[in-house]
Amino acid sequence: MDALITAAGRALAAGDPLGALNRIALRSDAPALALRGIAMAQLGDLDLAKALLRRAARAFSPREHRARARCVVAEAEIALVSRDLGWPEAALQRARETLERQGDTINAAYARYLSARHLLLIGRLDEAERELEVIDPDLLPLQAQAGCGMVAAGIAMRRVEARKARAALERAAAAARGAGIPALVSEVDTAMRALEVPAARLISSGGEELLLLDQVEALLASGTFVVDACRHVVRSAREVIGLETRPVLFALARALAEAWPSDVSRKVLVAKAFRGRVADESHRARLRVEIGRLRALLGDHAGLSATDAGFLLTVPEGRDVVVLAQPVEDSHADVLALLGDGEAWSSAALALALGVSSRTVQRALERLREEGKVRSFGRGRGRACRWVVPTLPGFPTNLLLPAKITDG
């Protein structure tokens, strides 16, 4: 490897893309094209970066497996940064396996770290954690060590494990300071501050209050009967009763929990569950059916009793009932929560991350745009069109990101 390529590579590792380009900007051989692609990625021109990396991959000879695999890994990182979550994961895996066979353990570990980031973004937390567990952090540069800490923290936050998240972020902060890259230090600081802002809103018979993630963790560990409106589940005695695909049952559970220990009239329950203004006999009959289904799902955790006015939620003596909601409620809070990371997302990437159809996400985005909460740029509705939030304050937190969104 010639001296200019070596110097450019060192400049990129130190976060100095301009210094790297000063040495290789006029060269078009394969190693220089690859480094130019990485430099453009660091400068934020992701489209040009991808084009340069693909040219570099084609310019390397078919026998240069390691160099071609490195280009694939670099392109995968750009896809992650640009939230192109549909980028083929299998290609990254093949590149990692190639690097491992070639003895390039550092870049193989880096490829595994990128895979963990991708899995976290699309909500596959267990798989992301398994990827992190097999990475030897000492193999990675400090910048990637900080990234691993951020991924571990992200997994812990999504699982409402505040203590683990804080410990992971402290490791990430130490690595970021060691790397000496201001943008990375700032990114970790921003993640640390997310732990100090309200993660959820508690609704109980005593009123409402905002909770930090630590307080949410303590609440879920207690014996309280929790109707979790962030993830559309009911939590009781460390068991989780999923109602993500049962919107009517969840609406009934939430209405009854918000009124506890009082009952809720049939008229209100019909309005909440069926959006009906008048509780006629057909609504009453359907309400009895749905209450029966909810009673069967709750089992021994809670009872549902009929009263003169409507229905009453009951729990064993000594237990409380609360509702856990987003700090700022919106029918499309999960979309806003993902966009709240400040990146420009495509509708396809949002759909992949939320596990719903692109059409469902499109409807949510169109409604949010009409309300002035998001804006788009680019042409068309496919990958070329990107969505961002115009302002960040007051948006739902992604710490308790729900798994699904509804069509409503």
UniProtKB/TrEMBL annotation:
Q: Which SUPFAM superfamilies match?
A: TPR-like, Winged helix' DNA-binding domain
Q: Which domain of life is it from?
A: Bacteria
Gene3D superfamilies under this entry?
Tetratricopeptide repeat domain, Winged helix-like DNA-binding domain superfamily/Winged helix DNA-binding domain
> Cross-referenced Pfam families, in alphabetical order?
HTH_11 (PF08279)
Residues forming the Helix-turn-helix type domain are 335-372
Q: What is this protein called?
A: HTH domain-containing protein
Species in which this protein is naturally found = Nitratireductor kimnyeongensis
